[in-house]
Amino acid sequence: MSTSMANPFPAGDSDRHEIWNMLVRRDIEAFATNDWERHAADFLVDGFFGIDAGRSGNPDSWSAAFPDLETYRRDWSGFAAKSQGRLAPEALREAHFAATTLRDIDVRGDFAVAHKKFDGAVCYDDGERESFDWQTLYLCRRHEGRWWIAGFVGFLPNPMGGPTRERPDGAGGRAVAGDRARHAKHAPASEQHVTAGPYSPVLDVRPGTLTVISGQAAIDPDGSVSSSDFAEQSHHTLRNCLDQLAAAGCTAADVFKVNVYVTDLANWPAFNEVYRDYLPEPRPVRTAVQTALLEGLLVEVEMWAVRP
Length: 308
Hints:
The chain is an alpha+beta fold.
């Protein structure tokens, strides 16, 4: 067992020892295999709720995103499913352990508040780097002789207005502990039409280092167009965008503005299906235009990013 997977609370501190196993070990082991049932028995169904802080320290922008356990289960399962097949389960498990810290648990009788922090990143086999930079307050209750998860306030900034922290790589280089603690963009609470796609209607962007890439397309290093298939061109185009961002030390999580140019808007739904897998929440604001492109190209994308 690696040090990152060791329970920091001795068995003699039975309450905290049990809560840590519930919130860290069982959650991560279930997530790595997308097996909700391994973790489902840890939740109190009656009265369960979850608050999404949206990485904002301002409570006025928090939302009642998870009014019941079924809503949370769908979100958890969807997030877990996106990781499957992109990294071996054991490597994914190690990466999440390396990025997770739970050392502050306040126990008052049969009630406890656990401060679970995420500070790191997972590097997938396909080259994408997914950052974790939030914290969650779990509300736990002891019932019928054991501890249960009764609710949470999640996706709080980590740290809450503190400085950037740096730590060495972990988990064989697949998890990067000490990733930038907070991104320079935030999605304020906002409503939009029901047909809206995978984008944010509005973002707040804090001043930082601005990175802009030229329009990218499905072009191989030898200058040839890689495919005539729209979905394959979309994948290649977005990978090229991430490569250019990486050259400037940015990830997809730093992107706040995207412009997309397609030769035929009939392909727009297909583009969105691909796009969802590359840009994490809160997704960038976005503009789409139908236009002529260079011969053989079906889609072109440009991105703007900001680093804290």
